[in-house]
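Components:
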Amino acid sequence: MSEVAAVLTLAHRDLIKLLRDRARMVSDFAFPLIFIGILGTSLQAGFGGATSFNLLHFVFTGVLAQTIWQSTALGVISLLMDREQDFSQEIFVSPISRYSIIFGKILGESLVAFPQFIAILAFGMIIGVPFTLEKIVALIPAALLIAVYGGAFGILVLSRLDNQRQANQIFPFVMLPQFFLAGIFNPIQDLPPFLDILTKIAPMRYAVDLLRDVYYGSGSGVPLLDLPTNLAIIGIQFVVFMVIGTAGFVRAERNR
Amino acid sequence: MIHLDSLTKRYKKADRNAVDGISFDVRAGEFFTLLGPNGAGKTTTISILTTTLSPTGGTATIDGHDIVREASAVRRIVGIIFQRPSLDMNLTAEENVRFHAILYGLYPYAPTYGLMPAAYRAQVQSLAGLLGIADEIGKPMRTFSGGMRRKLEIVRSLMHRPKVLFLDEPTAGLDVPSRRTLWDYLRTIRRESGTTIFLTTHYLEEAEEADTICIIDKGKVVSFGTPERIKADLVQEYVLIDAEDRTRLREELGRLELRSDGDGPFRVHIDSRHAHAALKAIDTPLTLVRTHMPSLEDAYLEIVGKLSE
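Structure:
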């Protein structure tokens, strides 16, 4: 019972931090809206007619998944910031399980990602992305799943890093290629073999594809894999990331 | 209460042990001080005892619990005030305390102060009152001064009623009045709850209040005992004397059975209480009489200085 309370209070702290950090709220919401509003709209205006495929909707679904996934992944890495500000000492000296600490962090960052999900969804409606009520209801669990998956990826990356500076340095290399390998703005079927392999090992790809499974439907031809396959891959990767990441992080904390 | 047996830690890529096989015991309810210069291994020792760092050798137990195998049980019974404040600046003071109380499983989770159990609110108010920060407890951390932050950390660390309270150089960065009030509060807490206090410091005057002092340097125990015993061990009193006729003086010192060394001036090993009688007994006309009575601080500096040479 106390482990559940500990997870909740860790998550609560992250949400409070978001709500008190106005600059972060603005930047969290601004980037996805710029991507969708400018990139999505211009792609649709330029090529949409020729391809007879709505590129705005395509970019919208991609950015929605990417934002949630990346928000949690980056958020979890803020454990490094806690370590630098010596706050992690307070968490790590407490009697709760190390897994609860990680899980609380992922849950908290998922909660932080949720307002972004709502804001992007609302923005999509305003610019005319079609939704049905069933689709919105189905997107909620998908978004939560993507958030938790992003968190597990964050833990894996975190376990390999020593400080925030390192994180800032390697993040462009970990995140930016995935923007393109995950097919947020661009199609990724029929790629040359070396790129095809790279897209298959980019975890963000499965998050984006899962969301498109829910939005377009598995049989629509837009998602690359069907829903059960994406779910299975995400499930396996989640467990692997969590186990390796948590073990690595805890070991790095204690065996200095 | 605390038992260390050949505890050793070598950091990765380090060429020497930060803590080098230290062994000692701390009794329940004792005020124990680990004294040493910067880099002596004090924080490393505390980090190992509070289970946030793995030792590379030796063992330690707190209240019978092994710090490696029963880390969770150890964490439950210790409180710690870190060298660098570990408060979340994005939260209010009370939120920091609540966060701690829930992590330690003292109270169920509730999203606001008002929704927390009455027992929690009473405990926070009483501890904050004891430390004189009751009015500020709902304010954001950023508005707290260094001294108030330290007090809040004490409030927080006492929430789960630890059997042992570790304080890692708690007065670093505090001004003299804050430092003094901090000591007053620690004395009160100890009197009222019987908590074992394990303090590290590099200030000698803070150590002099302790029941037991352990001096470490370069990871090794240099001296251990009550402040009086440490003083007796470390502090060497002597009287420095000289005469024009050094041969006669040397003979006379030998005849009077006064232990001395040097070829002039002579260092006569007598304590200050017997100096007068000894000097009176000497017939040789003296050209120099100087008593040497170092403070504990001089002795400490001497011992630490000797080791670093």
